[in-house]
Each structure stands twice: as structure tokens, then as C-alpha cells.
Amino acid sequence: MLATGLIFFSFAFLDFLPPGPWDDVSFTKGVFGLTGLCLLYLSWFEFTFAEFGVVPTIKKWKQPQTTWAKVAGIGFIILALSWLSGNTPMREHLPEPSGIILMLIGLLVTYTGFYAFLITRGPLREEE
To answer: What pLDDT digit, counting tens, does each position of 18-69 carry?
Structure first.
């Protein structure tokens, strides 16, 4: 699944794809890129949690009390990459919607980290 995801994701940056039934090469590149991202995520999930799934619930985390900060930090890094992909010369080399897709991923990762904090150390934790 990892190799297929990498191949599909790389198609988003190449110009040899056919226009497809919608007669638009950029849309075809986007479909392949998003499919590749989905496959990469599923591969990461299976590697990290040793099971096939989609939703990384907090109960699956080994140490949510300490891991939440790393997850939130990675979310902020992805948000910074989102800003860079739209506000620097790098945008000329990336697909047009890459900034908004990175922002969506970054926000989801950041919110997951903050939620883990709230239920392990914050006001939503269960009292023992």
C-alpha cells in the first residue's frame, strides 16, 4: 500500500497523465494525488497501530499524556508548510490546491493533539 501511495502521489507532480473523462489534466493529477495521500495515510495507520483502520482514537495511543505535544507540534509544522506552499516561490512547483489540503491535514492533526491534551491533562480528564 505504501509503494502504491507513493506512486499515485508522485503523479500529482508529473505532466504525462491523460486528461481523463473530464477533459482536464490538472483534475486527473488531483485525483491521483489525493488517492496517493489516502493510501499513504492508511499505510501509516497500519504501521503505527498494527491494525487496519482510519480513526486513530486516543485509546490506541501508547502514551497520550506525553504524545499529545508531539502530535500538536507536527500539526503546526504541517500548517507552516501550508503557508509556505502558498506564499513563497515554491507554489509555482506545487499543484494549486496543495496549500488548502496541507492546511486541512495540519488542522486535523493539531486538533487531535489538543484533544488528547484536554482528555489526559486538561479539564476534560476523568478523575480517578
So the answer is: 888 888 888 888 888 899 999 999 999 999 999 999 998 888 999 999 999 9
Q: Is the pTM of this model over 0.85?
A: no
Q: How far apart are CA 103 and CA 69, in angstroms?
A: 19
Max alpha carbon distance in the chain (Å)?
60
Quote the mean pLDDT of the chain.
90
Backbone angles phi, psi at 33, to 5 degrees: -65, -45
Among 52, 15, 10, 54, smallest CA distance to 33 is for: 10
48 vs 21, 38, 56, CA distance in Å? 37, 15, 10
- Note whether 59 and 32 are within 8 A (CB): no
Q: Are 4 and 39 in contact (CB under 8 A)?
A: yes
